[in-house]
């Protein structure tokens, strides 16, 4: 991965993911989680304070050792057990149909094969299990999309492979999820190229 991606990107992400509207959106996306949860792209644990009391445990999937170390303070204050249980969202080390819910927050942009990750989440969810997600991706407006395509090569180079143009809802549907709640919006205070967010809940059909 290189020193930059291993050491610098997790620290930059830790700061960036605490800015602006992020906290409020994390509260929204975590609402309704219950039971055993798998969280891909756990990062430095910014979602931990927002896990509802109904969550009984979290299997955290996070490839970055630096990110996991940065999560220590939040993990110390966790109200539910959080286990670092995997390193790769594209290959989850869990049996089929073992989790009640899944959580992904600003993660699908950087996973090399987002389709494989969603397929894996669907595999490990129980029938009727829910995927709670908030992701940035392809903007709803053509004028913003043009800039996203122009900026994406630089974005990927600077931020660990982060894509700007992934069509989040389409990816979910193609993976076999049924979207039951969906909100598409521009994140307040963020550049539109970076802050075209898709937030919602999808059910493993």
UniProtKB/TrEMBL annotation:
Every Methyltransferase type domain range: 38-132
GO MF term (any one): methyltransferase activity
Coiled-coil regions listed: none
One Pfam family matching this protein: Methyltransf_11
Signal sequence, renumbered to the chain: none
GO biological process: methylation
UniProt keyword list: Methyltransferase, Transferase
The protein, known as: Class I SAM-dependent methyltransferase
């Amino acid at each position: 991965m290189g020193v930059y991606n291993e050491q610098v990107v997790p620290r930059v992400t830790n700061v960036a993911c605490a800015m602006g509207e992020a906290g409020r959106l994390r509260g929204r996306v975590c609402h309704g989680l219950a039971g055993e949860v798998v969280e891909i792209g756990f990062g430095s644990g910014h979602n931990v304070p927002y896990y509802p009391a109904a969550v009984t445990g979290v299997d955290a999937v996070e490839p970055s050792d630096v990110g996991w170390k940065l999560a220590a303070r939040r993990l110390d204050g966790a109200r539910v057990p959080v286990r670092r249980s995997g390193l790769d969202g594209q290959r989850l080390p869990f049996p089929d149909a073992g989790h009640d819910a899944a959580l992904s927050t600003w993660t699908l942009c950087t996973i090399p094969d987002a389709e494989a990750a969603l397929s894996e989440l669907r595999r490990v969810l129980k029938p009727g299990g829910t995927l709670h997600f908030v992701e940035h991706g392809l903007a709803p407006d053509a004028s913003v999309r043009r800039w996203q395509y122009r900026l994406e090569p630089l974005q990927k180079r600077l931020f660990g492979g982060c894509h700007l143009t992934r069509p989040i809802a389409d990816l979910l549907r193609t993976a076999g999820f049924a979207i039951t709640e969906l909100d598409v919006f521009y994140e307040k205070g963020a550049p539109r190229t970076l802050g075209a967010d898709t937030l919602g809940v999808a059910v493993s059909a």
